[in-house]
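User: Please fill in residues for this 623-position structure.
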């Protein structure tokens, strides 16, 4: 075997950028490269080509991994056995069931536990007393596996107090791995309420921090911006809120020693299936926090980031596709340098996940770590021209959002006034319009829907115990309520199976199969997104009267005409008229051709959601 590297590229001449651009323009038929430049929800451009001139990677401007100000992560050598923390979230309301799940998952590769706590038992583990907590954590060694808290309805003071009492019974409480995750402003943003005024809330935070001081190995506070993402916000809004929440929290703790507190703060972000932007978001977060520490005159410390896969991207229909979404998000977390990664079970949008959902969630990370070896290299995305350039663009956009929030009086004041929520709603509504037109596709729901998909399993429902009534809140604001991107289409799918007869639409095809098959497939998939099955003539009709007879025999009430642009001028009007005479309530045409008898058109870029609602109305399907 030769020792020299064989330069295969030497057989090809070097291509210039001008030649590449010429080839692109030829492929785009003269439309120009701007037509394949994408624009994000923040108005940032994603170009098809990046180069050294965009980010001078050869000079290593961000330093090296493990070096202050830690823009490229906390370490130059990832842990060989656990390059990131595999943290599993547990949501079953019954403490005993949750305990069995925790022990099973820890045995099978999970490295830390996150308890989603809900006193009502509707959206998390129902822990109402120390006995409940002891039952939940029986047999769990917190000196090995971190116990992290994720309260649903409060800043974490009650939960932290229970865990502190539980931990004080250990032989060495300081050695326990705990993440109390106190987050008053996150609770305000998520729930829209606080039980006390801001002054009293932060006084309680200071008191709680003082009580937790003996747990020297614990993470004390969490700055959580996931609710911004889950409410439909953009990446820059999520990052801007993250930094604004951190700054406002530290500002309201005037007696805190920031240098000592900073290393004990965790940050949590959401990652969706766009892994390129997800990696850039994590890198942008490090730049933003490093800048804040510099302005606060705090010694640089690594930013500890927990990345959680997005809930808003998950679908209820064809939930199996969520495995792919969660895998790409987990990939972004690993490549982007997240210290902790939490993968939601693929079936969590349907209810409380059972063993299959949790097994796939943990194994997604184990395979990425052990087989794909994504943690073998420190900062694997470092120096990538797109990643670094877009991370910088995103950091600047997030800093502008942070400045907007500061001008409004800080994160808490902006939330209480509703100003920040209004900006999130603007982005959410714009994205909803794109989803309605399938400019933002959702596989399995708006694209390639499967009407006979097998349902994913979920855990048996448990009846929560009676919970004490929550006190009246002292502060209220509009909460950043979570959304599901697929919800408008899924609500239509919900009504279709409830019909006495399976709802269908008739595909009225014109001409031979070669002419109409593409548009027939387009129409079939479009209406399937609303739960409507398509019926076609058993034999291709040759005349308008044959088409009308086939429609009448089908038992359908609505029709879509599918043919070629060259055939429509001669046959579409006659076909539509015959179909109307045969009882068709509404006639669509696949394409943009218009003629008497044609009520509506479907085409690439049309409002699919409006079309499906209209079809449901014509069929008498109630919402």
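Assistant: Residues filled in for all 623 positions:
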């Amino acid at each position: 075997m030769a020792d020299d590297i064989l330069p295969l590229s030497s057989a090809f001449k070097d291509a210039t950028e001008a030649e590449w651009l010429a080839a692109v323009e030829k492929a785009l038929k003269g439309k120009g490269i701007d037509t394949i430049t994408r624009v994000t929800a923040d108005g940032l451009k994603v170009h098809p080509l990046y180069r050294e001139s965009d980010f001078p990677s050869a000079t290593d401007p961000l330093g090296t991994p493990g070096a202050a100000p830690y823009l490229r992560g906390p370490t130059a050598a990832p842990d060989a056995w656990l390059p990131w923390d595999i943290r599993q979230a547990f949501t079953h309301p019954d403490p005993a069931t949750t305990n069995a799940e925790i022990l099973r998952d820890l045995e099978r590769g999970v490295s830390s536990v996150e308890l989603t706590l809900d006193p009502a038992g509707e959206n998390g583990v129902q822990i109402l007393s120390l006995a409940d907590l002891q039952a939940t954590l029986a047999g769990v060694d917190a000196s090995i596996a971190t116990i992290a808290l994720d309260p649903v309805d409060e800043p974490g003071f009650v939960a932290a107090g229970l865990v502190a009492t539980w931990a004080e019974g250990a032989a060495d409480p300081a050695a326990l791995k705990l993440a109390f995750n106190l987050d008053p402003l996150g609770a305000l943003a998520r729930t829209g309420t606080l039980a006390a005024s801001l002054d009293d809330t932060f006084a309680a935070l200071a008191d709680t921090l003082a009580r937790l001081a003996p747990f020297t190995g614990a993470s004390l506070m969490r700055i959580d911006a996931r609710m911004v993402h889950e409410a439909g916000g953009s990446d820059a809004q999520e990052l801007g809120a993250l930094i604004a929440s951190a700054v406002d929290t530290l500002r309201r703790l005037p007696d805190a020693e920031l240098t000592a507190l900073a290393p004990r703060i965790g940050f949590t972000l959401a990652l969706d299936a766009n892994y390129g932007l997800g990696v850039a978001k994590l890198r942008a977060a490090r730049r933003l926090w490093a800048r804040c520490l510099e302005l606060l005159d705090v010694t640089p410390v690594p930013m500890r980031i927990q990345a959680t896969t997005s809930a808003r991207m998950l679908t209820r229909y064809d939930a199996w596709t969520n495995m792919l979404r969660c895998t790409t998000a987990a990939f972004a977390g690993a490549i982007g340098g997240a210290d902790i990664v939490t993968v939601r079970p693929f079936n969590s949008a349907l209810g409380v996940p059972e063993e299959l959902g949790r097994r796939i969630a943990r194994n997604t990370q184990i395979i990425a770590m052990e087989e794909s070896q994504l943690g073998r290299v420190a900062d694997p995305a470092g120096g990538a021209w797109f990643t670094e350039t877009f991370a910088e663009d995103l950091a600047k956009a997030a800093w502008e959002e942070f400045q907007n929030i500061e001008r409004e009086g800080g994160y808490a004041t902006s939330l209480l006034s509703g100003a920040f929520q209004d900006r999130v709603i603007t982005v959410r509504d714009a994205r909803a319009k794109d989803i309605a037109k399938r400019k933002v596709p959702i596989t399995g729901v708006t694209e390639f829907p499967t009407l006979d998909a097998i349902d994913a399993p979920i855990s048996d429902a448990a009846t929560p115990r009676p919970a004490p009534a929550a006190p009246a809140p002292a502060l209220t604001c509009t909460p950043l309520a979570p959304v599901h991107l697929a919800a408008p289409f899924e609500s239509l799918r919900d009504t279709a199976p409830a019909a006495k007869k399976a709802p269908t639409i008739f595909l009225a095809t014109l001409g031979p199969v070669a002419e109409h098959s593409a548009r027939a497939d387009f129409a079939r998939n479009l209406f399937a997104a609303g739960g409507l099955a398509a019926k076609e003539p058993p034999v291709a009709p040759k005349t308008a009267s044959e088409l009308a007879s086939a429609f009448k025999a089908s038992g359908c009430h609505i029709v879509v005409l599918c043919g070629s642009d060259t055939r429509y001028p001669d046959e579409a009007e006659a076909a539509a008229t015959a179909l109307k005479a045969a009882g068709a309530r509404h006639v669509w045409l696949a394409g943009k051709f218009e003629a008497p008898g044609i009520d509506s058109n479907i085409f690439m870029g049309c409002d699919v959601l409006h079309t499906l609602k209209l079809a449901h109305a014509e069929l008498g399907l109630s919402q």
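For context: Residues 496-619 form a domain with the Rossmann fold fold (CATH 3.40.50.280).
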